[in-house]
Amino acid sequence: MLYIVGLGLGDERDITVRGLDAVRSCSKIYMEAYTSLLSLGLDPAALANLEKLYGKEITVADREMVEERVDQVLSEAADTDVAFLVVGDPFGATTHTDLVVRAKKMGVEVKVIHNASVMNAIGVCGLQLYRYGETISIPFFTDEWRPDSFYEKIQNNRQLGLHTLCLLDIRVKEPTWESLARGKKVYEPPRFMTVNTAISQLFEVEEARGGYAYRRETLCIGVARLGSDDQKIVAGPMEKLLDVDFGPPLHCLIIVGETHPLEEEMLEFYMIK
Ligand SMILES: C[S@@+](CC[C@H](N)C(=O)[O-])C[C@H]1O[C@@H](n2cnc3c(N)ncnc32)[C@H](O)[C@@H]1O
C-alpha cells in the first residue's frame, strides 16, 4: 500500500491522527522535498523533529529522485506499506496525481490522507475562497528567461472581480546552465521568492504590457509562513508592500479583486498602518 499523507502547514504536530497512524505502520517513509522548507533538509531540526515524533527514519525525496526513482518507490509499495509525505495537502497546488496514476497502473493500492493546504488556509486573510479565480505561479526572472504568461490570468481574474492567489517560485537543487552544458551537474543555492521580489516582477511585466491588469495602488495581501506560529499577513497597496519585510520563507501574495463588506472588515485587521 502507498499512503500519501499531507502534513499540513505548521510544524510536525500538524499531521492528522490518521496520518500519524499510517506513518507509524509503514516500513519506509519518503518525504517530498521540493515545495516546502520543512522538507527541504534546510532546517535539519525540523526533519529531526519529524523523525522523533513519527518514530521513523525519513528519506528526503527531491524532484530528481521522485521523477527518476518513482518506480522503485512504487515497487516497494507493492510489497510493503510505504508512506509518501507531502507538506500541505497532497493535492494542494503541486498535485501528486501523476504518482497516483502510476501506482494504480502498477496495481499498487493507494490511500490518501488529507491536511490543510496553502490553497485553503489562505482563507484566514478574510477573502472568501469561492471568490478566487485561477491561481498563478510567478517564476524567478533571469536575464534570459522572463516568462509572463501569468499576466493574462491575473487580467481575466480581475475582469471577473475575482481574487488571485500568486504562488511564488522555490528553486531547490536546480543545476546551473553552465554545469548542464559541461555535462556534470552543479547545483544553485536554494532560493525562495519573497513577496517583494514578486511585486517588483509584477510591476516590470505591467510596464512591458502597457498596464491595465493592476496598478501600483491595487490592494494586495502579502503572506509569509502561513499556518505557523509566526505567520505574517499584511494588506495594502501593492507599492507599499514592496517595502515590508516579511521575514523568512515561504511567501505568497494575493491580488485582491472586488470585495464584499465582510471581507473588507476582516482585511482591516491586516491593513498596513
Ligand atoms: C506548490 S505550493 C505547495 C503546496 C502544498 N502542497 C500545499 O498543499 O500547501 C508551494 C507554494 O505555495 C506557497 N506556500 C506554501 N506554503 C506556504 C506557507 N506556509 N506560507 C506562505 N506561502 C506558502 C509558496 O508560494 C510556495 O512556493
Automatic annotation (TrEMBL):
It comes from Zea mays. InterPro entries: 4pyrrol_Mease, 4pyrrol_Methylase_sf, 4pyrrole_Mease_sub1, 4pyrrole_Mease_sub2, Dphthn_synthase. It catalyses: 2-[(3S)-amino-3-carboxypropyl]-L-histidyl-[translation elongation factor 2] + 4 S-adenosyl-L-methionine = diphthine methyl ester-[translation elongation factor 2] + 4 S-adenosyl-L-homocysteine + 3 H(+). Residues 1-241 form the Tetrapyrrole methylase domain. Belongs to the diphthine synthase family. One of its GO terms (biological process) is methylation. This is diphthine methyl ester synthase. Its EC number is 2.1.1.314. Coiled coil: none annotated. CDD domains: DHP5_DphB. Keywords: Methyltransferase, S-adenosyl-L-methionine, Transferase. The gene is LOC100191377. S-adenosyl-L-methionine binds at residues 9, 89, 92, 117-118, 168, 226, 251. GO terms for molecular function: diphthine methyl ester synthase activity. SUPFAM superfamilies: Tetrapyrrole methylase (SSF53790). S-adenosyl-L-methionine-dependent methyltransferase that catalyzes four methylations of the modified target histidine residue in translation elongation factor 2 (EF-2), to form an intermediate called diphthine methyl ester. The four successive methylation reactions represent the second step of diphthamide biosynthesis. Pathway: Protein modification; peptidyl-diphthamide biosynthesis.
